[in-house]
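Support request from a user on the community tier.

User writes: "When I paste my C-alpha cells into the form, the page sometimes reloads and wipes my input. The last time it worked, I copied everything first. Here is what I submitted, just in case something in the input itself triggers the reload:"
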C-alpha cells in the first residue's frame, strides 16, 4: 500500500513529480498518494524563485503512524523541492503535450489522417444507404448536362441545375441528411464501443474525457453523441469547419471546437 498523507488544508494536485526515492525518475501523484507509475526524468527540475516547500505551500504533513515499508524511507514518498502546479507547467524535454495523468496527446496530422480514413468509410456507407436517391440524382444531373450542352451549341443561356424541372433539390437534400445521420450514428457508436472511430483506431488514437488519458473504455452515450453532433454540425458550415480542424494547432490541450464542447481530448495510445 502506498504512503498516504493527512491533509491539513490541501494536498498537491495530481501530476508527474520527481521521484523522491530515485531522482532519475518521475512518479505520478494521484492527488492523495504516490502511484506505482514511473517514467524517466529527462531534465532535473529546478526550483522556481520564491517557491514554497510543499508543506508550506499546501499545508499538509506526512503521516507518521503508518508502518515502515521495506525499501522506503520512514516518511514515505513525499514531494520535495520544486512541486509544479500541474503537468502543463512542468514538462521535461523529450515529452510532448500530455493529459494531466501523463498520456501523450495526438498530433494534428494523426487526427487529420484519421478523419480522412473515416471520410472514406462514411462515403461508402452513405452510398449504400442512399442508393435510390443517388439514382434519381444521376438521372436529373444527366438531363441538366444535356440541356447545358444544347444551350452552348445553340448559343442560348444554359439552365441552372436548381431548376425544378430537373428534380435535383430533393435527392441532394436527402443524400445530405442520410450522410449526416449515418456519420453521427457511426461516430457515436464507435466512441461508446471502442473510444474511437475506425480511423482513430488505425492511427493508435483514443478519445477520452479531458485529463483522463489512461481511460481504457469507451465514452458515455451523452458525451459521444454531443461530440459527434458538434463535429458534423460544425463541419456543415465550411468556414466554421475549417476553423474547427485548425484550432488544435493553437491550444495546449490540442482540442478542436467539438472537443471543447464535449469536454474531450484525443490521446495517442500506441
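"...and here is what came back when it finally went through:"
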Amino acid at each position: 500500500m502506498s504512503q498516504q498523507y493527512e491533509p491539513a488544508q490541501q494536498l498537491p494536485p495530481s501530476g508527474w513529480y520527481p521521484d523522491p526515492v530515485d531522482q532519475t525518475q518521475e512518479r505520478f501523484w494521484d492527488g492523495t498518494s504516490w502511484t506505482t507509475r514511473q517514467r524517466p526524468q529527462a531534465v532535473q527540475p529546478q526550483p522556481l524563485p520564491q517557491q514554497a516547500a510543499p508543506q508550506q505551500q499546501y499545508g499538509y504533513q506526512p503521516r507518521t503512524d503508518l508502518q515502515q515499508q521495506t525499501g522506503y524511507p520512514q516518511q514515505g514518498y513525499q514531494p520535495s523541492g520544486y512541486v509544479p502546479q500541474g503537468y502543463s507547467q512542468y514538462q521535461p524535454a523529450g515529452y510532448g503535450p500530455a493529459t494531466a495523468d501523463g498520456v501523450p496527446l495526438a498530433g494534428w496530422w494523426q487526427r487529420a489522417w484519421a478523419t480522412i480514413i473515416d471520410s472514406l468509410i462514411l462515403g461508402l456507407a452513405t452510398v449504400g444507404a442512399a442508393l435510390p436517391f443517388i439514382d434519381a440524382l444521376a438521372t436529373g444531373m444527366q438531363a441538366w448536362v444535356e440541356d447545358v450542352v444544347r444551350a452552348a451549341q445553340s448559343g442560348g443561356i444554359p439552365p441552372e441545375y436548381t431548376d425544378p424541372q430537373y428534380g435535383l433539390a430533393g435527392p441532394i437534400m436527402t443524400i445530405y441528411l442520410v450522410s449526416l445521420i449515418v456519420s453521427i450514428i457511426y461516430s457515436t457508436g464507435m466512441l461508446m464501443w471502442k473510444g474511437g472511430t475506425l480511423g482513430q483506431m488505425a492511427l493508435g488514437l483514443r478519445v477520452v474525457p479531458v485529463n483522463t488519458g489512461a481511460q481504457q473504455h469507451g465514452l458515455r452515450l451523452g458525451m459521444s453523441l454531443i461530440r459527434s453532433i458538434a463535429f458534423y454540425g460544425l463541419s456543415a458550415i465550411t468556414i466554421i469547419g475549417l476553423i474547427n480542424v485548425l484550432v488544435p494547432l493553437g491550444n495546449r490541450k490540442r482540442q478542436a471546437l467539438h472537443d471543447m464542447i464535449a469536454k474531450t481530448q484525443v490521446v495517442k495510445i500506441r
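Agent notes: The reload is a front-end session timeout and is unrelated to the input. The beta strands are 5-7, 15-18, 25-29, 34-40, 60-62, 205-209, 264-268. The chain is about 40% helix and 10% strand. Escalated to web team.
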